[in-house]
Fold this protein.
Amino acid sequence: MRSSSRWAPLCAIAACSLLSGPASLARQIWTPTQVNDWYAQRPWMVGANYIPASAINQLEMWQAETFDPARIDRELGWAEAIGMNTMRVFLHDLLWQQDAAGFRNRIDQFLAVSAKHHIRVLFVLLDSCWEAEPKLGPQNPPIPGVHNSRWVQSPGVAALKDRAQEARLETYVKGVVGAFAKDARIVGWDVWNEPSNSKEYLERVHELLPKVFAWARSANPTQPLTSGVFQEGTWDSGRPTPVEEVQLAESDVISFHDYHWPEVFERRAMRLSALGRPLWCTEYLARGAGSTFDESLPIGKRLRVAMINWGLVDGKTQTRLPWDSWTIPYINGREPVVWHHELFHADGTPYRQAEVDLIRALASAPDGVVTVPAKAPSK
C-alpha cells in the first residue's frame, strides 16, 4: 500500500536505522521483503490467547505442581477441531529463575502437545499487566465475580526498580529464546505484552524494551519478534509514544490489540499495514464492547491479518466476565448479558455454536476468501 502523509510518521519509524542501538550486537531486524516472504509461506493464522481452565495465571499454568498436560491436550484438541492453528501463551521470568531446566522441559512438553494438534505457539516473554508483585508458589484463588483477578506482571515492580536484576532478566530472555530459537513449533516471540501499561515505571520500561529485543535477537531465532501496540495508544493518531516507537521500529512482524467496533479495527489494521510488514492482531474479542467474531474475524481474513482472540476456555481467570466486574463483581448468581471473552465452557461445549462454525469456515477457506456459513433459522 502506498503511504500518504497521514501515515508518514509510522512509516518513518519503520525505516529508521537501529545500527547505533543495542540491536547492532544481535541479528538484524528482518527486512520487509524477508518477513513478507516468510509470512507468505504460512497459512492464515487464527487462534486464541491460551491458559488452561485450571490455572489462575501464568505461574499456576507453568509451575511443576500445577502444570497439567492432560488438560492442555484436551483443550487444545477443542481448538484444533474448529480450525485454530495458533496459540499465544504467556511465560514468566520467575519460573526461569526458580528452575530453568524444569521450566524448559515443561515448555517442551507444551510444544509437543500443541504440535500434536497442529497448533504453533506465539510465546510472550514479559508482561506489564495486572498484579505488580508476583510470587512463586501456590497462587491465591480467584476473587469471586471479578475478571482476570490474579494475573501477574513479568517482571514485577521489584525487578523493574532494582537495576541489579537486569542481568537476571537478560539470562531469562536469552535462555528461553536460545533454547527454542530453531523450533518450528514456535511461530514467534512476543517480547513484551502492553509495555505502555507500566505507567509508574514507563521510563524504565522504555529503557529496557530495546534491550529485551536485542537479547532475544542475540539467540538468532528463526522466528520473528514482535511487541503489540496497545489499543489506547497514541500511535493511532500518528503520534506514537517513545515506547510505541520502539515497538514499531524493532518488531519483525507488527502486532496490535483492538477491542473496539469492526470499523475501528479495520481502520487501525489499514494504518499499520502501511508499514509494509505482516500484521497480527494478538488480542481482540470483547463482545459487549463491539469486538466480535462475527464482525472482526472476516475483516482479518480478508486483509490476511492474523487473528488471536482473548480466551479459549472459561476457567479460573473468569474472563467471560466483562471489565465492569472490577467495580461491580458478578456474584450471587448474577451473570453478564453476553460473555466478554472465551469460546468454550469448561466441558468443551461452545459458548455460541455460530462462532465456532465461523472460525472453522474461515480457517478452511483459501487466502482472501471470506466464507461465512449460513445462519440457522431462529426458533
About this structure: The chain has one domain: 43-364.
